[in-house]
């Protein structure tokens, strides 16, 4: 199939359909409303279902019902809407339900604004709702990657029986780029859905639940979940190394749109013989902490700079990863303002001009 | 070399509509700038995109105004609002009798619906142009394009008067991409009974087009709506909103 | 406050100088103005707090010069409950669209009405989601084309439009509930009378009060302002009958 031009939100919608997810539940919210509009046209063609729910609270619970049947279902929303789904996400994590959620992030907190943001990093990677749980978090930085990661999200959700989130800032949802959909999409074999509630004729009844009256049983469930998260950390860390080499003087860490901006800066600085590398987390959970550590400790690296569209969220994970071995710096803009390549470049030059900085927190 | 003169359309009001992502905003913005450079009359552009929250013609406002185009779009903080703002002055601008007005309308029939709320203003002559991009999923075939034309005509209550062939893949656009799109536009033209008014394409692809193959004027576009990491002429950004995504009229 | 008692027709002082951001032909502006006039006429503007919705009317606080709280989407009745319960001397009103009140916030409005919270709700029913680009609302008319019902609202899948005034009137708790329209001057006069009555009940501490105002959205309906008024009359009115559905004195049908 040839390359076609798509808007991020449409590309994600089409990718979900290609991954066999034709059940979609959502409530309108900018800047992701095109997913729903695309689905309302495409789903009837492929025999799918789109319910425009009465609220995001309902969406979360509709999803629980839908995926409990063993079918692939998903939603898309933007920051405030994802907040409203947190109770359901916590419950789906506890009950091991493989759901996919797309968060096209906008500026917060509160109602905030509709322009791009990466300020839901904490919310998505640290659980977000109540209790001990994690969701798998994938963060594309191009539209092709949005397609690939959306399809992968359904696979990983089924593989681990765990909620899986694709987080992209509004820029990725709204921009246009050429993409290609895989000709015939094949997935690795997945475990059978021998937990799905499909009617118990000919077998013992199955119960999907998250209530544990016996504290020991609840603890056992949490321990089992934690083991699953450990497996994810072993097997699913994904990242991209951009121009990483022993000459690098600064290691940048950025994801999504911010990584694209950092790449522009790296290319420009390379022309001036200033060598900078970028480590771009593709999975935000599990986080490529070991890989960041390995690069950060290289002798030429003067500092690690995290760039985000937030007041500093991922930087806390970067700091934990670097373990105090190198200074960790942070540059960010919020409110929907996207840092320009100039700003990032100026900040890099400032760090390079500093005398040997003491190892201290970016918070100062 | 196929550099022809700027394809001036006689009508006073020129409306660009089309599918999401057909590139109508780029075409409209470039066309308005082209008009300002070629004709003596005042030129204005109306940002009527009430659907897209980003990448609207208002983002090119500073550069357009520098080129002598009056930009009519929500002011100040309203330009970022998630609100379908229809300024009262839009009606006046359309109904006036002098000057040229370019309208940039939101995508698909959904985006074109807003025209319908102005239906009683379009009395005098206008060009209503469908911008076609054969590399967009819903307009990659003649049937799809005809359906798009039909749907937009229904929701806008206006009849198209011509086709703009604007097939592109952003920076992956080649001369072949443009030619392939032109063939589709011609086929749509025959079926719909609408003339292809011009082919538009970005600089490099436009330069290498064979005038033998393209029987209509070629309009060379300069991309105006760049992503933040593509921006070359970054000094043009306002210093107040340094780092800001959107350039707005304050 | 109103020293110039002679003036017959004035822009209500409460209605600031700001030019509203509403589209030409949108009834939000008229409805704001009626609310401002009523607050001023009743002399309660100084002790009124409005609760702004998430929707096209989110910037209502730029236009009506009283205190305001900006609620989360759909939750205005809960904000109002909290405020009114701890400060019963305040006059509290919510101003909500149909996506806000009849979709995401149905829970909050039903329970506030059922508890008999003594605040006032101005419910603006324009049969569509205006702010987010014209998606289907629970009040969208059967067959009406919207961004998420490209083939028209299909009642087999989406059910029939919700009639909020009727729905809330079925609650046993005393309340004042009336539906009005704004498609011509006579109806505007009636609408204002209803809004005034709603606030009057609140001043007297009698009951929860809600006025459903049938509104317009020319931009997303795809109609000229004139046509929208016509459509309100010919399409919405037969489905959404006007009148008073409930008063604390007992069921009345005008
Ligand atoms: C939790 C949450 N979900 C979704 C939205 C997006 N949103 C903003 S306004 C709105 C609906 C507006 O429609 P309506 O209430 O009918 O008011 P109108 O704009 O028509 O006046 C939606 C869905 C949001 N702000 N917050
Ligand atoms: S979109 Fe509709 S509801 Fe919103 S301001 Fe415009 S006409 Fe009014």
Can you lay out the helices and strands and say which pair or pack?
The complex is a heterotrimer of chains A (about 375), B (about 250) and C (about 250).
Chain A: E1 4-7, H1 8-18, E2 23-26, H2 33-42, E3 49-52, H3 56-68, E4 73-77, H4 79-84, H5 86-94, E5 100-105, H6 121-125, E6 136-138, H7 143-160, E7 164-169, H8 170-174, E8 176-179, H9 215-235, E9 239-242, E10 250-253, H10 256-271, E11 276-281, E12 283-285, H11 289-296, E13 303-308, H12 314-322, E14 328-332, H13 341-353
Parallel strand pairs in A: 2-3, 2-4, 4-5, 5-7, 6-7, 10-11, 10-13, 13-14
Antiparallel strand pairs in A: 1-8, 6-12, 9-11
Helix pairs in contact in A: 1-2, 1-7, 3-5, 10-13, 11-12
Chain B: E1 13-18, H1 24-38, E2 43-48, H2 61-66, E3 69-72, H3 89-95, E4 100-105, H4 108-116, E5 126-132, H5 142-156, E6 162-165, H6 175-192, E7 196-202, H7 203-207, E8 218-221
Parallel strand pairs in B: 1-4, 1-5, 2-3, 2-4, 5-6, 6-7, 7-8
Helix pairs in contact in B: 4-5, 5-6
Chain C: H1 28-41, E1 48-52, E2 67-70, H2 76-86, E3 91-97, H3 98-104, H4 106-115, E4 120-125, H5 155-158, H6 164-169, E5 175-181, H7 185-203, E6 208-214, H8 218-221, H9 225-239, E7 243-246
Parallel strand pairs in C: 1-2, 1-3, 3-4, 4-6, 5-6
Antiparallel strand pairs in C: 5-7
Helix pairs in contact in C: 1-7, 3-4
The complex binds thiamine diphosphate and iron/sulfur cluster.
Iron/sulfur cluster (SF4) binds near residues 23, 56, 217, 218 and 220 of chain C.
Describe the structure.
The complex is a heterotrimer of chains A (364), B (250) and C (254). With 364 residues, chain A is of the alpha/beta class. Chain A has two domains: 4-235, Thiamin diphosphate (ThDP)-binding fold, Pyr/PP domains (Rossmann fold, 3-Layer(aba) Sandwich); 240-353, Rossmann fold (3-Layer(aba) Sandwich). Chain A has helices spanning 8-18, 33-42, 56-68, 79-84, 86-94, 121-125, 143-160, 170-174, 215-235, 256-271, 289-296, 314-322, 341-353, and strands at 4-7, 23-26, 49-52, 73-77, 100-105, 136-138, 164-169, 176-179, 239-242, 250-253, 276-281, 283-285, 303-308, 328-332. Chain A has a seven-stranded mixed beta sheet, with helices on both faces. In chain A, strands 9-11-10-13-14 form a five-stranded mixed beta sheet, with helices on both faces. The model of chain A has no long low-confidence stretch (mean pLDDT 95). Chain B is an alpha/beta fold and 250 residues long. Chain B has one domain (13-224): 3-Layer(aba) Sandwich (Rossmann fold), CATH 3.40.50.300. In chain B, α4 (108-116) packs parallel to α5 and α5 packs across α6 (175-192). Chain B is globular. Chain C has 254 residues and is an alpha/beta fold. Chain C has a single domain, classed as Thiamin diphosphate (ThDP)-binding fold, Pyr/PP domains (Rossmann fold). In chain C, 35% of the residues lie in helices and 16% in strands. Chain C contains nine helices and seven strands, in the order αββαβααβααβαβααβ. Chain C has helices at residues 28-41, 76-86, 98-104, 106-115, 155-158, 164-169, 185-203, 218-221, 225-239, and strands at residues 48-52, 67-70, 91-97, 120-125, 175-181, 208-214, 243-246. In chain C, α7 links the parallel β5 and β6. In chain C, α1 packs across α7 (185-203) and α3 (98-104) packs across α4. Chains A and C meet through α2 of A and α3 of C. The structure holds thiamine diphosphate (TPP) and iron/sulfur cluster. Residues 22-23, 26, 28, 56, 126, 130, 217-220 of chain C line the site of iron/sulfur cluster.
């Amino acid at each position: 199939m040839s390359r076609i031009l798509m808007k991020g939100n449409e590309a994600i919608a089409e990718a979900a359909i290609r991954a066999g997810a034709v059940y979609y539940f959502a409530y309108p919210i900018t800047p992701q409303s095109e997913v729903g509009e695309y689905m309302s046209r495409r789903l009837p063609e492929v025999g799918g279902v789109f319910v425009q729910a009465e609220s995001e609270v309902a969406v979360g619970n509709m999803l629980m019902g839908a995926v409990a049947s063993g079918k692939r279902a998903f939603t898309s929303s933007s920051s405030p809407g994802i907040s409203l789904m947190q109770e359901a996400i916590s419950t789906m994590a506890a009950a091991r339900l493989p759901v996919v959620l797309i968060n096209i992030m906008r500026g917060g907190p509160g109602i905030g604004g509709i322009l791009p943001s990466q300020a839901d990093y904490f919310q998505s990677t640290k659980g977000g709702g109540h209790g001990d749980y994690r969701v798998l978090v994938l963060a594309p930085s191009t539209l092709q990657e949005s397609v690939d990661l959306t399809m992968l999200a359904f696979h990983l959700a089924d593989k681990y029986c765990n909620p899986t989130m694709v987080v992209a800032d509004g820029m990725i949802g709204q921009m246009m780029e050429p993409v290609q959909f895989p000709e015939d999409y094949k997935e690795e074999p997945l475990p059978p859905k021998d937990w799905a509630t499909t009617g118990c004729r000919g077998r013992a009844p199955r119960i999907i639940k998250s209530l544990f009256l016996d504290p020991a049983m609840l603890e056992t469930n949490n321990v089992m979940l934690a083991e699953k998260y450990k497996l994810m950390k072993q097997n699913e860390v994904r990242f991209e190394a951009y121009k990483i080499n022993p000459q690098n003087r600064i290691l940048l860490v950025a994801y999504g749109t911010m990584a694209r901006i950092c790449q522009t800066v790296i290319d420009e600085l390379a022309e001036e013989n200033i060598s900078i590398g970028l480590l771009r987390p593709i999975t935000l959970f599990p986080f490529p902490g070991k890989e960041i550590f390995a690069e950060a400790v290289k002798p030429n690296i003067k500092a690690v700079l995290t760039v985000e569209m937030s007041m500093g969220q991922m930087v806390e994970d970067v700091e934990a990863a670097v373990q105090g071995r190198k200074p960790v710096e942070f540059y960010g803009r919020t409110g929907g303002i996207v840092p320009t390549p100039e700003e990032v470049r100026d900040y890099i030059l400032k760090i390079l001009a500093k005398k040997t900085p003491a190892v201290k927190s970016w918070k100062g | 070399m196929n550099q022809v003169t700027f394809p001036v359309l006689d009508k006073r009001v020129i409306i660009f509509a089309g599918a999401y992502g057909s590139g109508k905003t780029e075409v409209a913005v470039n066309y308005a700038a082209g008009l300002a450079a070629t004709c003596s009359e005042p030129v204005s552009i109306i940002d009527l995109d009430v659907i897209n929250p980003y990448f609207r013609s208002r983002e090119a406002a500073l550069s357009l105004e520098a080129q002598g185009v009056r930009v009519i779009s929500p002011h100040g903080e309203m330009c970022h609002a998630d609100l379908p703002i229809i300024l009262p002055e839009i009606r006046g601008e359309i109904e006036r009798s002098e000057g040229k007005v370019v309208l940039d309308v939101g995508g698909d029939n959904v985006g074109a619906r807003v025209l319908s709320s102005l239906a009683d203003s379009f009395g005098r002559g206008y060009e209503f142009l469908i911008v076609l991009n054969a590399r967009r999923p819903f307009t990659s075939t003649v049937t799809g394009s005809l359906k798009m034309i039909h749907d937009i005509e229904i929701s806008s209550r206006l009849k198209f008067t011509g086709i703009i062939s604007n097939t592109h893949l952003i920076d992956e656009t080649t001369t072949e991409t443009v030619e392939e799109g032109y063939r589709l536009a011609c086929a749509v033209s025959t079926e719909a009974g609408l003339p292809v008014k011009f082919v538009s394409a970005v600089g490099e692809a436009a330069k290498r087009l064979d005038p033998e193959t393209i029987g209509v004027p070629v309009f060379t576009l300069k991309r105006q709506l760049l992503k933040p990491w593509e921006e070359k002429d970054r000094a043009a950004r306002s210093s107040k909103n340094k780092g800001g995504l959107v350039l707005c009229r304050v | 406050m109103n020293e110039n008692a002679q003036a017959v027709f004035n822009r209500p002082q409460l209605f600031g100088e700001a030019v509203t951001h509403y589209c030409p032909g949108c009834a939000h502006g008229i409805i704001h103005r009626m609310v401002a006039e009523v607050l001023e006429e009743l002399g309660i503007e100084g002790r009124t707090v409005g609760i702004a919705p998430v929707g096209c009317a989110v910037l209502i606080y730029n236009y009506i010069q009283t205190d305001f709280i900006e609620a989360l989407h759909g939750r205005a009745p809960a904000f109002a409950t909290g405020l009114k319960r701890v400060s019963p001397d305040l006059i509290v009103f919510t101003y909500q669209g149909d996506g806000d009140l009849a979709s995401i916030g149905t829970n909050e409005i039903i329970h506030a009405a059922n508890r008999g919270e003594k605040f006032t709700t101005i419910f603006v029913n324009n049969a569509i989601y205006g702010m987010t680009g014209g998606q289907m609302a629970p009040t969208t008319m059967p067959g009406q084309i919207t961004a998420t019902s490209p083939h028209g609202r299909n009642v087999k899948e989406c059910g029939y439009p919700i009639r909020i005034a009727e729905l809330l009137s079925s609650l046993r708790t005393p309340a004042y509930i009336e539906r009005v329209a704004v498609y011509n001057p006579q109806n505007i006069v009636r609408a204002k009378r209803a809004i005034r009555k709603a606030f009057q009940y609140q001043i007297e501490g009698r009951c929860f009060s809600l006025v459903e105002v049938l509104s317009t959205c020319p931009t997303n309906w795809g109609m000229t302002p004139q046509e929208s008024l016509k459509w309100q009359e010919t399409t919405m009115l037969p489905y959404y009958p006007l009148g008073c559905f409930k008063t604390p004195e007992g069921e009345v049908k005008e």
